[in-house]
Amino acid sequence: MTKKIFQGFLAIIALTIALMYSFGYSYLFRGIRETYLRGKTGSSIDDGPYFPFNIIAKGDPKPWVKDSLYNRKPLPNALVQELKNTSTAAFLIIKNGKLLHEEYWDGYHQNSKTNSFSMAKAVTVLLLGKAIEEKKIKSLNQKYSDFYDNYKNIPLGKDLTVGNLATMEAGLDWDENYSNPFLPNAKAYYGNSLAEAVFLRGFKVKPGTKFEYQSGSTQLLGFALRKAVDQPIAEYASEKLWKPLGMEQNAEWSKDENGMEKTFCCIHSNARDFAKLGQLFLDNGKSGNLPVISPEFLNLMKAPTKQSGNAYGMGLWINNDNAISHYYFRGLYGQYIIIVPEKNMVIVRTGSSKSQPKDDKGRPQEVALMVNEVARSF
Fold first, then answer.
1. What per-residue confidence (pLDDT) applies to 134?
2. What mean pLDDT comes out for the span 82-111?
3. pLDDT surpassing 90 at residue 155
């Protein structure tokens, strides 16, 4: 009897595995292997080594100049408590182009590389801007069907532009749900083929008519960018951002089994180098005297759209409702590169904040708290 029960159990397992492969859910095995079998309950800031990646190579490093008051003034108690409560790994303040404060927790340090998650979306949009500047892409209005001809035959797909993808107004049939393993975010994150995860999903509404934050949009943008620049996107990021900005370390950009970068997420780098992406905006697209990217395109990125309720631009979240206006790169677990023009300041926070109360426009309230506390004290 026991033997028959065991055999029946094995048969059920075998059938389950066969069905998962048949219905396109084989990526769940990788998800289980890289999460539960490692003592995690989901993706994490340290899971970079478990995925294939392309290197974003640095050039000659340009370390941050430390301010004369570097780390001489402690962070406000209320902010420290918030950072500890939200499992912060790193917290940096850059003011007037100099490193004013940096602090690390839980064994992380200045060379620790952690997952950017969706901060990579803004990097992808920066590269879009560079490709437009270099005339590899015509403009934000260029049709997606110019890159993938079959979109001409998809209802509403023929209307899609690269600009729609950058502003999260693509109208894709995509549910941005990180907790359900059967929805497209999990397939894009853990699957072997990004093309299978994002192409030809169809559309819910006409592109350009509604804001809806969708990782699939930035991944589609990545495919167009890859075709336009005709090289791995990590190589393009190295040439156009990492090297001219003087990053201190190589970064790793997670990719699928076909070599395509996950442009919706997953650049693994350190807090100091992330900060240089924010400083690029304060320096109007330059690194020292070296032009890196068009300041006009940066202005487009940080211009809030009406469809988003003035909360999102292109790859950036924007808060002009706060007493101190700011805009920022944002990752899933509270990864932020926050630019505060009024204070000539960049704030970087990395970590694993799983609970983020949001305002009525979907923006994490903790960002405004960080900005207000830092501006008050520094």
1. 98
2. 97
3. no
Report long-range pairs for 357-365 (Cβ below 8 Å, ≥24 apart). Answer: 361/308, 361/309, 361/310, 361/311, 361/321, 362/213, 362/311, 363/311, 363/317, 363/319, 364/330, 364/334
In single-letter form, the type of residue at position 7 comes to Q
Q: Look at residue 4 in the predicted model and tell me its pLDDT.
A: 52
CA 369 to chain centre: 21
Read off the pLDDT band of 179 (50, 70, 90).
low
Q: Is the dihedral of CA 329, 331, 337, 339 positive or negative?
A: positive
Domain with CATH 3.40.710.10 in the chain: 48-377
Q: For residue 346, is it left (φ>0), alpha (ψ between -120 and 50) or beta?
A: beta
CA angle 116, 128, 49 (to 5 degrees): 30
How far apart are alpha carbons 14 and 252 in whole angstroms? Answer: 36
Angular region, 194: left φ>0, alpha ψ -120 to 50, beta rest: alpha
Cα–Cα distance, 231 to 183 (Å, whole number) = 30
Question: Are residues 213 and 206 in contact, defined by beta-carbon separation less than 8 angstroms?
Answer: no
Indicate if the pLDDT at residue 313 is higher than 80.
yes
Across residues 289-297, what is the average pLDDT?
97
Work out the angle at residue 302's Cα, subtended by the Cα atoms of residues 296 and 305, and round it to the nearest 5 degrees.
Answer: 110
Question: CB-side exposure of 126: number of CA atoms within 13 Å?
Answer: 25
The bridge status of strand 286-287 relative to strand 251-254 is unpaired
Average of per-residue pLDDT values in the chain? 90
∠ at Cα 288 (287, 292), nearest 5°?
Answer: 30
User: Which architecture, in CATH terms, is 48-377?
Assistant: 3-Layer(aba) Sandwich (3.40)
Q: Tell me: pLDDT of 7 over 50.
A: no
> How many CB atoms are closer than 10 A to CB 69?
12
**Alpha-carbon gap, residue 299 to 104, rounded angstroms:** 32
